[in-house]
Specification:
By secondary structure, the protein is of the alpha+beta class. It has a single domain, classed as Nucleotidyltransferase, domain 5 (2-Layer Sandwich), CATH 3.30.420.100. Helices cover 43% and strands 19% of the residues. It has 4 helices and 4 strands. Strands 3-2-1-4 form a 4-stranded mixed sheet, covered by helices on one side. The longest helix is centred in the middle third of the chain and has 18 residues.
């Protein structure tokens, strides 16, 4: 089997998910980046429920994100996402990068979320 970028990301994702699990006290912050957009959600794996979700497609963020490059959008989304989490009384999370390399937009989102008040 040829090990393409997609297959290698899935291998990394499975390896990380063996150890990383979200609980009620410390849910899992999962991120996904496509070519155009960035998505994030906080998940309680015990209940199997998404507690907070946001993306660059959410209408309340679209106007603020317009005209910025993707990395700046991810950082701003991280700050806004942290605000949403704090409203729901979530301050500590476990970061799950879903097999994506901690670089670029993923790192920018994490930095923005930390600035917004999330602890991970």
């Amino acid at each position: 089997m040829k090990r393409t970028k997609r297959i290698m990301r899935k291998i990394r994702q499975v390896r990380v998910r063996k150890r990383v699990a979200g609980t009620e006290a410390r849910p899992r912050l999962n991120v996904y980046r496509s070519l155009s957009h960035f998505y994030a959600q906080v998940i309680d794996d015990n209940e199997g429920k998404t507690l907070v979700a946001a993306s660059t497609l959410v209408k309340e963020f679209v106007d603020e994100l317009k005209g910025k490059n993707k990395k700046d959008q991810a950082k701003l989304l991280g700050k806004k996402f942290a605000e949403r989490c704090i409203e729901k009384n979530i301050r500590q999370v476990v970061f799950d990068r879903a097999g994506f390399i901690y670089h670029g937009r993923v790192a920018a989102f994490a930095e923005g979320a930390r600035e917004g008040g999330l602890d991970f």
